[in-house]
Amino acid sequence: MLGRVEASHLVKEFRGYKRREGAWGAVRDLFQREATTLRAVDDVSFTVEPGEMVGYIGPNGAGKSTSVKMLTGILTPTSGSARVNGFDPYRDRMAYTRTIGAVFGQRTQLWWDIAVVESFRLLKQIYEISDADYKARMKRFDEILELNRYLNQPVRKLSLGERMRCDMAAALLHNPPLVFLDEPTIGLDLLAKESIRRFLQEINAGLGTTMLLTTHDLADIEQLCNRLMIIDHGRVLFDGPLHSLKGMLWRETQVRFDLKDPEHAAPLRTLEFEGVRLEETDPLTWRASFDREQYAPGEVIRQVVAAVDVRDIAIEEESIETIIRRIYTGGAIPSLDKARTR
Question: What is the fold of 5-9+43-243?
Answer without folding.
Answer: Rossmann fold (3.40.50)
